[in-house]
Amino acid sequence: MVVLNKIYTKTGDDGETALGNGARVAKHSMRVTAYGTVDELNAIVGLARLHTDGELDANMSRIQNDLFDLGADLCRPDIEKDAESEYPPLRIVGSQVDRLESEIDAMNAKLEPLRSFILPGGSPLSAHMHQCRTVARRAERLTVELATMESVNPDAVKYLNRLSDWFFVAARVANDDGKADVLWVPGANR
């Protein structure tokens, strides 16, 4: 159980922060940058949810919870030592990736195939979903870069990859099931 009774601790005043295993690292470390971007994405999902309801909102609520799981995963290095831990760290698992794929397939089933690239926009919800998509891609790139330096849960990378796809399809759903998508017209302003 987390108890936060004091918000500022002053322990980060020297430019370092603690990871989930207690190790102190620079706040600009790649690991902190990766999970910080996941946190940024979660905040943007919260903004997008201001425009949702029903099943889409329920799915996005699950995604927000998954993003906290992902942040917990990324802030805990040394995945190869998980089995030795007295308290195994929280990790993204394959079933979370599978759920995203299932939701993508369900949303995509009612959309016409794309015959052009689309521009971010249309409805306010769709615009927010595209912002979620691009920040998810950035979080994925940073996590992949982190994986070249340190151990990273492969399911975390897969989750971020599917999540950006999820937001792309959800953005189309938010544009009247793709009927109000804003199509790219190559060279239109030459």
Automatic annotation (TrEMBL):
It is an enzyme of class 2 (transferase). Keywords: ATP-binding, Cobalamin biosynthesis, Nucleotide-binding, Transferase. It holds the Pfam family Cob_adeno_trans. It catalyses: 2 cob(II)yrinate a,c diamide + reduced [electron-transfer flavoprotein] + 2 ATP = 2 adenosylcob(III)yrinate a,c-diamide + 2 triphosphate + oxidized [electron-transfer flavoprotein] + 3 H(+); 2 cob(II)alamin + reduced [electron-transfer flavoprotein] + 2 ATP = 2 adenosylcob(III)alamin + 2 triphosphate + oxidized [electron-transfer flavoprotein] + 3 H(+). InterPro entries: CblAdoTrfase-like, CblAdoTrfase-like_sf, PduO-typ. Pathway: Cofactor biosynthesis; adenosylcobalamin biosynthesis; adenosylcobalamin from cob(II)yrinate a,c-diamide: step 2/7. Its EC number is 2.5.1.17. Residues 7-174 form the Cobalamin adenosyltransferase-like domain. Belongs to the Cob(I)alamin adenosyltransferase family. PANTHER family: CORRINOID ADENOSYLTRANSFERASE (PTHR12213), CORRINOID ADENOSYLTRANSFERASE MMAB (PTHR12213:SF0). This is Corrinoid adenosyltransferase. It comes from Marivita lacus.
